[in-house]
Amino acid sequence: MLLEGEIYNFLVCKTTVFPDGEEYYVLESPFKTKHLLSKRTYFHYNFCLNNEIKCKVDRINCSLRIFLEPEHPVYKINGVYEMNFIRQDNTINSKGVKKDTIILKDMAGIEYVCIDNSNFSDFSVLSIVKFKLLRIKKAIFYIQII
User: What does the mean pLDDT of the chain come to?
Assistant: First the structure.
């Protein structure tokens, strides 16, 4: 049985497309249960079929739906990194709440949506942002500016 907050190895079995056109990875847990992971959300993680990936069981809701967060292939929690500042933006979370975000680009040219927990407000003066990675949720980086 999967436990909330724990990290497990999952096998990337295949991809599947839902009727709405959304594509998902089908993952198999160590307990042989199947789980879906949005391919669009994690496209830049470059998952390969028949490879194992580490996922944290981020949440199990009251209807026992399991939410997984795969380990990023490059960036690790509590790591300190530098990326290029692209722009300020915003996103709306699953509860409909608008969150201010910043878009950062790494050396590989991949852009990341980041939510800053340090209350830094004037990003326009920065070209390079140095930060500590606090959490990743749905491929969004929660960071603290250093």
Answer: 92
